[in-house]
TrEMBL record:
Classification of source organism: Eukaryota, Viridiplantae, Streptophyta, Embryophyta, Tracheophyta
GO cellular component, one term: cytoplasm
Pfam families: Glutaredoxin
Name used for this protein in its record: Putative thioredoxin-disulfide reductase
NCBIfam families: GlrX-like_plant
Localization of this protein: Cytoplasm
Protein family membership: Belongs to the glutaredoxin family. CC-type subfamily.
Domain (Glutaredoxin) ranges: 13-75
The keyword Cytoplasm is annotated on this UniProt entry: yes
Keyword set, alphabetical order: Cytoplasm, Redox-active center
Amino acid sequence: MDVLARLTAEKPVVIFSKSTCCMSHSVKALIFSFGANPMVIEVDKIENGVQIESALVQLGSRPSVPSVFIGQKFIGGADEVISLNIQNKLAPLLLSAKAIFIWG
């Protein structure tokens, strides 16, 4: 879990992803569409990716990716992020985390 805390402390939005995962791609596109510039960590392309995936699963992320942190808080995967967007709650989260500065 310490590795997750270190990685998510650096940016307002961190997305753990796999380069071949279509849901990861969709979540990244959604977050980018708000004008945010998330840190994207492709766990299938880094040396300690298996360790990171294990930590994400322990956190409750099933499947392990995509996993989204906003304001250093674990939001969840694709279902949770898309649900927040449908409920018009994603933009306020991004604003409060200072990932975006203006919306709507």
